[in-house]
Known about the structure:
Keywords: Cytoplasmic vesicle, Repeat. It comes from Fregetta grallaria. There is one protein chain. The chain has one helix spanning 13-21; strands at 25-31, 37-43, 46-54, 61-67, 70-80, 87-96, 99-107, 113-119, 122-130, 136-142, 145-153, 159-165, 168-177, 182-189, 192-200. Helix content is 4%, strand content 58%. It has a single domain, classed as Single Sheet (Histone H3 K4-specific methyltransferase SET7/9 N-terminal domain). The protein is elongated, with a radius of gyration of 29 Å. The chain is mainly β. It has a 15-stranded antiparallel beta sheet, with no helix packed on it.
Amino acid sequence: MPIVKYPRATEPLWHEWDWKAQKCGLRHTVYAVNGDQYTGEWLDNLKHGKGTQVWKRTGAIYSGDWKFGKRDGYGSYSIPDPVTKEYKKVYTGWWKNDQKCGYGATFYPGGERYEGEWSGGLRSGWGRMYYRDGSIYEGQWLADRPGGQGMLRLPNENRYEGGWKDGKKHGPGKFFYLDTGQLFEGIWAADIPKCGILIDFGRDEAPAPTQYPIPKV
């Protein structure tokens, strides 16, 4: 019986090229079509593990943890200064699904700074915000604004302690006028005091007390 020899099947060349192009584990810098570059670890062609991404259009850099192609874990995000070209840190903290999530610190233009909790890329939970004018808010946040209970301390040391909603004083609260030695305690709505009681508070130690004390009722 004659022996029939069949030619051995050969894989198309693109199969070999595709296999060689598969990214898994630690790789050298990989460039995207738009010029972005990534150096770090991969899993099944996705950024996964430790790595650094540089965006060509903005020059921004992220260095930290990745999970299945997205920033996830701990990492820092920096952008170049438009004048000096030196990198300035914008955010350092935790990420989830490519957004700020968990505890982190953000540095804003003009010297403002936020330290606290995030959710879905927004300030949410407990946090402390340092404003440009020297004011400091410390308390609860909701959807990127003060919401819940918190304290706002002004540059002259006067402060408000109480409820907040949509970034404004709302609900029961106390406003300490330490410069004049008075205390207002009452109800607020959309930053406006609606009703309450004004009494003397630390008037003897106040730097600029009122001329006459408030008479007791």
